[in-house]
Amino acid sequence: MKRTNLYKEDYALEIFSSQSFLTINKSLLKHYGPDISIFLSSLIDKYKFFLNRDDLKDGEWFYLIHKIQIEQTGLTLKKIRTCKNILVEDNILKISRFGIPSKEWYKLDLVKLLSIVGSTTKRLARSKQAQLARSKQARLYNKTKFIKKEKIIKKDKKEFLSYFPVKWQNNAPFQFAIDEFINHRKEKKKPLTKAACIRIANKFSKYDISICIDAIYRSIESGWTGVFPEAEKNYSKEKFYNNADNEPASDFLHPDWKIDD
After folding, report:
1. 32 in Cβ contact with 40 (< 8 Å)
2. Is the pTM of this model over 0.70?
3. What are the distances in angstroms from CA 213 to CA 122, 195, 218, 229, 243?
4. What domain range includes position 180?
5. Count of domains for the chain
6. 102-111, 133-142, 166-175, 188-197: which has the minimum mean pLDDT?
7. Residue by residue, what is the 3-state secondary structure of 48-95?
8. Which of 78, 108, 138 is the C-terminal boundary of a domain?
9. I need a surface site. Which of 28, 56, 183, 247 has the fewest CB within 10 A?
């Protein structure tokens, strides 16, 4: 029983050892495709076998019968012949018949193969480098574009806020709301002009700052490009005071605000 188990273990090691598998180069697959790559890898594996045993004929020829080729590669005889013809045309493989009975012997030009695979590898490397360069350039462009956009937004925000009293300019919720509205208008592809900023500031002068903030967010949520504090609830038509310092609205108005709606 133990002898049987040992035999099975040795058999399993033989079957699943690295020598029982074909190693296929990725560049070879890229250049020739799966069929020729598998067939060529089988020949190279057999060449290494003969080389390690010092059985190469004239130091370079080896053989591999068709039956074994079909079993090892899973290719049909017709596909194997096609692979041979292509490799012969590429001067990678030479075929000759020796012996009695005669067998097909093969000779591989590994230097030629290396030059072909090497050129493919270099081309892939250049392509990868170009791709990385384009990606880096795109990231740099996007970063530059983002920084430039941020500068424009900050400039627009500063200009927009300049039409309001200092107390309003220093109000954090109002600043944030203005920032959101500027971005909203840009996304709508209708950036704020100086005249639009003045009209909005002139309209806001009649309302409490909290109502103006609510009106801004209502416009953003509704997808409007205008702001309508008069539509907000809880505002007083008779009260024209600045919420920040409770001063009359007459001091709030800017000379440039005298633009008709």
Report:
1. yes
2. no
3. 61, 20, 9, 9, 12
4. 162-257
5. 2
6. 133-142
7. HHHHHCCCCECCCEEECCHHHHHHHHCCCHHHHHHHHHHHHHCCCEEE
8. 108
9. 247
